[in-house]
Amino acid sequence: MAPVGIAVYGSGAIARDHVAALARVHGARVTHVVGSDLARARSVAALAPGCIATVRAQDALTDPAVAGVVVCGPTRDHPARALAAIAAGKHVIVEKPPARSLNDFDAIVAAAQSAGVRVMVGQTARFQPAVRALAAAAQEGEIGTPTLLHLTWYVGHVWPGGWHGWQLDPAHSGGHLVHNGMHPLDLAIWLLGSRPVRVFVRGWCTHAPDMPTPDSFHLTARFADGGLALAELSYGLRRPGDALRRMMLAGSTGILAHHTAEDATLGGTPITVSHGSTADALYHQAVHAAAVIAGQVQPLITLDQSRAALAAALAAQRSLETGKPVEIGSDA
Amino acid sequence: MPEPRPTRAKLRAVVVGAGAAAHAHARALEHHPGFEVTGVVDTAQQARTTGADVAALCLHPAQNVAAAETLLAAGLHLLIERPLATSTIDCGRVVSAAQTAGRICAVTTAALAPAVRRVRAWLDAGHLGLPRSINVECLSGVDGLARAFGDAIDCARALTGCEPVEVFAEAGTASLETAVASVRFTHGVVASLVLGQVPAVPATAAASTTMRLIGSHGHVEVDAASPAVHHYSRDGQRQLPVDPAPLTATLDDLEASLRAGRPPAYDCRDAAVAVAVTVAAYESIATGMPVTVAADGSGGGST
Question: What CATH code would you report for A4-122?
Fold first, then answer.
């Protein structure tokens, strides 16, 4: 059986990671890297044997060997890129967040349903080994009904480009609550099995007060079934590579907890190494994405979950900006 | 004229109350080299005539204000089991009574746990720069949310050195008694709280209190029960503490303050702040809005 052809739309840091991960997936072939800068696209395409670098999206979208497209790049470009791929009959894996508005997300979903193609939002955190183990235990009923989630996610500054990085500009990213708030909100929706109905956020700039978006925030979320979540994210630890990730999920009969402090660490060296708890998440996602594109499995991340996460993230961004809690209607 | 400082080898203590907290206080006092227990009684009136230097009040929080006013007026120093009271008005009465009597009115707190004080010392030495955020998670198989709110605020104040300004809180309505909260402190410092009475605690003790602080120049995580020696056997695992328990640490500080004639590291004014934030948190839960905590720790109002 021929490997499933997958094009990657984007040539930035995340696109590079996707190509490297997909290149390792048995049964998948990266056919194209589409970028706005040909030299950069070539350097990314070089990670996958036989991959073509191009600045013309149509090269990939008109190629019958391409079954699916992984959409990367600035968030503002996600909807147009996804819609173009869908219009060409390609399945789509779109980086989180899929859009900066629910209308744009709904347009992607409607187009996909009309075209009969599959769409999945790439929520890489779900594929971290520790998250998978914790979620599996929860879904097997090890703690009864989950009702309280505490997620801690502290890392050093990760955004490239200094002051010019698009991630810092809410106009491009949708704001930090949309850009990275999607991570904990998607996990909370998955692990608690319910929908957020109210969020409240405080954000702060750890080091550079003039950052256009806070590098850190915490978020409270109330869920439709009475469950609660608190997520605290900081991209402001002093050293790049520093990480503190922790999960505590309390249920009616027990607790599941994990901390990256239990990972083996490499002391005395500046080399950044993967932690066992989080290692190879993008590869595991790539394996799943290839199987989704090939029609072998249903997407782990459902569109209903992604819509609820995006609605909550948009509400969280409003809460950050207003200092008030924001209700999320069932039709949001 | 300053109050004469106690010179006895052991300070005389009477325990007021009959519940689990009273037993814990009596046990801690008996084992403490600075105190001797002269009696365990049911009421403040009974404690007035025992000749004790200090009374340990282990009553329902709603009973504390009347008992404290009685014993402070009688010249006793106090150690009150938290929470101090159930309202900011009652807290103000205790603070006022202590001031009028010129007596020490200490209150039990998680903030005096040695692990917490060590981190505060690192902060004071400048190792972490300026605190920017703190998270406190208090999980217990026994204690309810009111005590957890107070403990979390005590720890956040102790580590940041800042005062709470505004709180937003949510209470869970599923099977467990749970809450999450966001608190704004002075100097723009923020705190997040995760509180719960849970069926199992992620520790070998009956409760777990952990904190994570990010400063401008570093971050730190602290478990109030760590470090410890871990004991493993066929019967399971248990933890042998390395540090004194928070109650013992509170007694250490109380004895030192009585002998030196200085205020304790944590007293009824601090405990009043914890109650004020707890009251504000419950108001926030009821209204669904952030609630301000007045600068004097009293009252609140939706913002």
Answer: 3.40.50.720
Contacts of B133 in chain A (CB under 8 A): 204, 206, 216, 218, 232, 234
Asked whether residue B198 falls in the same domain as residue B287, the answer is: yes
In whole angstroms, give the CA distance from residue A241 to residue A260. 13
Which of B55, B86, B107 is the C-terminal boundary of a domain? Answer: B107
CB-CB neighbors (< 8 A) of A148 in chain B: 172, 176, 178, 180, 194, 196, 198
- Examine the domain organization and report whether B74 and B139 are in the same domain: no
A252 vs chain B: nearest CA distance in angstroms? 6
- Chain B: residue whose CA lies nearest to A231: B192
Task: Judge whether B189 lies within some domain.
Answer: yes
Is residue B66 located within the same domain as residue B37? yes
If asked whether residues B183 and B216 sit together in one domain, one would say yes
* Interface with B, mutate which of A142, A148, A320 (most B CBs under 10 A): A148
Q: Which amino acid is at B160?
A: T
- What fold does the segment set A125-327 form as a domain? Dihydrodipicolinate Reductase; domain 2 (3.30.360)
Average pLDDT, chain A: 95
Range of the domain at B90: 11-107
Smallest Cα distance from B268 to chain A, Å: 30
Q: What percentage of chain B has pLDDT greater than the value 90?
A: 83
Please tell me whether the interface predicted TM-score (ipTM) of this complex is above 0.95.
no
Query: Are β-strands B105-107 and B131-140 bridged in parallel, bridged antiparallel, or unpaired?
Result: unpaired
Pairing of strands B77-80, B105-107: parallel
Same domain, B188 and B123: yes
Number of domains in chain B: 2
| Helix pair angle (A38-45, A13-22), 10° resolution | 30
User: How far apart are the C-alpha atoms of B156 and B151, rounded to whole Å?
Assistant: 9
Domain ranges of chain A: 4-122, 125-327
Closest by Cβ to B190, choosing from A218, A230, A236: A218
Q: Ramachandran region of residue A310, left (φ > 0), alpha (ψ -120 to 50) or beta?
A: alpha
Please give the pLDDT value at position A271.
56
Averaged over B108-123, what is the pLDDT?
A: 96
Inside any domain, residue B117: yes
Evaluate whether residue B196 is within a structural domain. yes
Is a pLDDT exceeding 60 seen at residue B4? no
pTM value? Answer: 0.94
Mean pLDDT of chain B: 93
Alpha helices for A145-280 (secondary structure H): 170-173, 176-179, 182-192
- For the stretch B14-32, pLDDT in tens is 999 999 999 999 999 999 9
The Cα–Cα gap between B159 and B156 comes to 5
pLDDT category of residue B299 using cuts at 50, 70 and 90? very low
Q: Provide the CATH number for the domain around residue B56.
A: 3.40.50.720
In terms of CA atoms, which chain A residue is nearest residue B288?
A: A325
Indicate whether A258 pLDDT > 70: yes
- Does the pLDDT at position B300 exceed 70? no
